[in-house]
């Protein structure tokens, strides 16, 4: 299933390059797991250590969604000479990122860090996207108790034969909020047996539930305590900017 926001999907998905293997999490799961979430701008890079293959970057926070901002982070790699096979990354002054970091004290990033690279300057489309993400983040913060013992996972349309899924083909879709969350029970084929709305778009909700039950394959959630959990959470996001685009998902399951 081609994701609604291709950039975010690529940057928050599994990265498999040579020996570098990163753990995949969904957008809401990354948010819940993180201790700091925000939009940063790289101010400068310096203090390269060629033996340890890392350097430092001073940052400015444009927006803080979660946690306490900081001024300096460690970067895995060498300045202008990162090795993707070792999960290294290049960051340069004036670059902007939406980042999800998890640390008790020292913050560091690599190619595996959940993040989305933004434009050098904000655009109208970016501002709308971030505004809608902010609404989703606020909901997650205020409803953590509803997600205890469950994990957000992704899904894809197994019936898809065109560039977008049936979710994105829904006509006259006018959501009252830019996201929806569903609790689902899945069978051994990862098909949805039972679906319970947690919060909905407020538009075409019956149609969306029917497509989820009929078309979607759910990625099995991982649990340390339960080898094969059969319950999970699905997060659907509305990308208004993809309306009319041949390859852009209007509603994604991330």
Structure description:
Helix content is 17%, strand content 33%. The chain has helices at residues 6-12, 27-33, 124-142, 205-215; strands at residues 16-17, 20-21, 36-49, 54-66, 72-76, 96-101, 108-109, 115-118, 152-153, 155-157, 179-186, 192-199, 216-218, 231-238, 251-253. A 6-stranded mixed sheet has the order 7-5-4-3-6-8. Strands 9, 11, 12, 14 and 15 form a 5-stranded mixed sheet that branches. It starts with 5 loop residues before the first helix and ends with a strand. InterPro entries: TIMP-like_OB-fold. This is Tissue inhibitor of metalloproteinase.
Quick recap:
This protein is of the alpha+beta class and 254 residues long.
Rg on CA atoms, Å: 19 Å
Q: Residue-averaged pLDDT, rounded?
A: 89
Given the helix and strand composition, which structural class is it?
Answer: alpha+beta
User: Main sheet, how many strands, which sense, barrel?
Assistant: 6 strands, mixed
Question: Taking strands numbered 1, 2, ... along the chain, how are they ordered across the largest sheet?
Answer: 7-5-4-3-6-8
The quaternary state of the protein chains shown equals single chain
Low-confidence regions: 1-18
Shape: globular
Q: Give the topology string: H per helix, E per strand.
A: HEEHEEEEEEHEEEEHEEE
Distance between the termini: 10 Å
Number of helices: 4
Helical amount among residues, as a percent range?
Answer: 10-25%
Proportion of strand residues: 25-35%
> What is the tally of beta strands?
15
InterPro entries: TIMP-like_OB-fold
Keywords: Signal
Protein name: Tissue inhibitor of metalloproteinase
Signal peptide: 1-19
């Amino acid at each position: 299933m081609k994701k609604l926001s291709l950039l975010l999907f690529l940057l928050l998905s599994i990265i498999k390059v040579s020996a570098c293997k990163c753990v995949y999490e969904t957008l809401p799961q990354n948010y819940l797991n993180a201790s700091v979430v925000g939009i940063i701008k790289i101010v400068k890079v310096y203090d390269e250590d060629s033996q340890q293959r890392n350097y430092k970057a001073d940052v400015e926070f444009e927006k803080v969604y979660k946690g306490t901002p900081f001024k300096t982070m460690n970067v895995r790699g060498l300045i202008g000479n990162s090795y993707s096979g070792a999960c290294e990354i290049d960051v340069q002054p004036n670059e902007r990122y939406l980042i999800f970091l998890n640390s008790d004290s020292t913050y560091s990033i690599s190619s595996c860090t959940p993040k989305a690279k933004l434009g050098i300057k904000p655009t109208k489309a970016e501002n709308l996207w971030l505004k809608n993400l902010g609404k989703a983040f606020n909901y997650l913060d205020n409803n953590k108790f509803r997600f205890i013992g469950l994990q957000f996972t992704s899904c894809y349309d197994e019936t898809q034969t065109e560039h977008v899924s049936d979710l994105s083909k829904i006509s006259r879709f006018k959501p009252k909020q830019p996201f929806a969350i569903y609790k689902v029970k899945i069978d051994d084929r990862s098909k949805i047996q039972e679906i319970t709305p947690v919060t909905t778009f407020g538009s075409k909700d019956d149609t969306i539930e029917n497509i989820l039950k009929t078309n979607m394959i759910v990625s099995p959630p991982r649990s340390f305590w339960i080898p094969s959990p059969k319950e999970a959470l699905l997060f659907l996001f509305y990308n208004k900017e993809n309306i009319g685009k041949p390859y852009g998902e209007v509603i994604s399951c991330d």
